[in-house]
Amino acid sequence: MRIIATAFIALSLLAGPFLANHTLADDTTAGSLKIENPWTREMPPGSKVGGGFVVITNSGDEADTLLSLTTSRADRGEVHEMTMNDGVMKMRELEDGLEIPAGGTVELKPGSYHVMFMGVTEGFKEGEKIEGVLVFEKAGEVPVEFMVGPVGAKMAPDHMQGHDHDMKKTD
Amino acid sequence: MRAIRWMAWILVVLVAGATIAVLVSDDVRDTMLGTPGEGTGIANIGGPFELVDQTGKTVTEKDLMGKPTAMFFGFTHCPDVCPTTLYEMTTWLEQLGADADKLNVAFVSVDPERDTPELMADYISAFDPRISALTGTPEQVEKIAKAYKVYRRKVEQEDGEYTMDHTATIYLMDADGQFTGTIAYGEAEDIVMTKLKRLVAGG
Hints:
Chain A has 171 residues and is mainly β. Chain A contains two helices and eleven strands. Chain A has helices at 2-14, 16-23, and strands spanning 28-30, 33-41, 49-58, 64-70, 74-85, 88-93, 98-100, 105-108, 113-120, 129-136, 140-149.
C-alpha cells in the first residue's frame, strides 16, 4: 500500500493544478438532500461504461428516490445495483430508482449501488471532472461534478489517503 | 436360521464394499466434498482450451504449463468488478516483485461477441503488461467457461445492449495446470499475497 500511496502522492504533485480542486469539497445541497463526493474512475481504453459514486443524505421528513443520471459524456445513465453471491457478480438496473429514506444516508460505492455511465465515447481520465445531473423524484434535477480517480480506485479521490472516517455506511 | 444369518452377513459385506467403491470414485467424492480445498488435487476445474491473446497469438492450456497461473474471467463492458480486479492484480504483481515473472496471469473474456483481441489489447493496456487478455470465438469461450465451471449469463437491457453476470473469483492453478485454490473478490490483501507467494513457491 505504501507504494501505491507514494505513487498517488507523486501523481497528485505532478497534477498540481488539480490539487486545489481536490481540497474543495464538491458538496451540493438540493432541498433536504445533501450530495457529497461524487466521483468516478479513469476508464481503461476502449471501455464504454463507467460507474459513478456519491453519498446522498436526506435530512427531510420524506423519502426521495434517485431515478437516473443524465450527462453529455454518456448516451445515458442508469441507477444500478451490483451484487456478489457465491462468487458470481450480477448487475441490475434499479428500475424503480434508489430510495433515499427520510433521515437516512445512502452511499453509492464500488461493489454496491452506482450510477452507470453507458455508451461513453470519450473515456474518463484521472483528474478530469465529469459533469452530470442526478435526477430525483422530489428534489428534481441536481447538477454534480464527478471527480475522476485512478483506474480501480476504491474510494473517492479525496479519500485516497485513508481519510475514510466520513464514509460510513448507514443505508 | 443359519442360512439366513449367512445371507445377512454376505449382504452386509456387499453393501459396505459398494459404499467404499462409491466414496473412492472421484466424481462422487467431489460432489460430496464440494469444491475441494487447496492441494487436494482432485478438483475437476481446468482443462484444455484454445484462445487468442491481445497480440493475436493463440494461447492454449499448454502455454501456461511450467508456471503457476492466476486466471479470472470478465469483460470490457464491466464498470466495476473487472477493472477493480485488474487494478488489484496489477498492484499484487508489483508487490511480488521479481517473483511476478514466475506467474502467468490471464484475464479471460466471458463476452466474446464484443471483446475482440483489438479491444482487449486497448483495455488491458491500462494494467500490468504481464497480464494476458484472452478471448476467442463464442464456442472457444464456452469451452473454457465450462472447463473452469464459470457461471456466465447474458442479461439484456432495454436498448438492445446487454451486460454479463459472471463468476468473479480468481482461479489459482499450479505449474501442471491443476487447480489449487481461489481468491475471492474483495479478499483481504495480506491473505491474497500469502496465497500468491505460496502459489509461486509451489510452482
